[in-house]
Design brief:
148 residues; Nuclear Transport Factor 2, Chain: A; 3 helices; 43% strand
Length: 148
Amino acid sequence: MKYTKLILACAGAILITDVAMADDTVDISAVLESYSLALAAEDVGAAETWVLAEGDDFTVFEGSGRDVGWVSYRDHHLAPEFASEDVSFQVYDWSGYTIRADGNVGVATFDIRMEYSVRGEDRERDGHGTAILSRTDDGWRIRHLHTS
């Protein structure tokens, strides 16, 4: 009887942990998908809700480029690109997420599909990304992105 209670307690703890990890995976996937959709819609304000936007808490590496802080990335990369008449995106899609969460840190890898035009020339590109997320009082938020 004593061992039965111990086994049931351990099984319950494992079940609760698995459910929490599954919820983290779903929540992180939703954050990444929401951020990706915001970028696809060229909606910088919506994208900002999914990142650590204060100070230098957010970093992004794109190819050989680097931005430290959401404001720098927003003002010197995203906003000018979205405002440019020379560049237009038809498809910008993240998919194929592999997600791991441990405590307050989440890590994800994913695929990126882009179809876009530059000065009237149609282009397409497949890439990959890595995201590091932090659990906050408002849920998971993106701390770092590396896309290539």
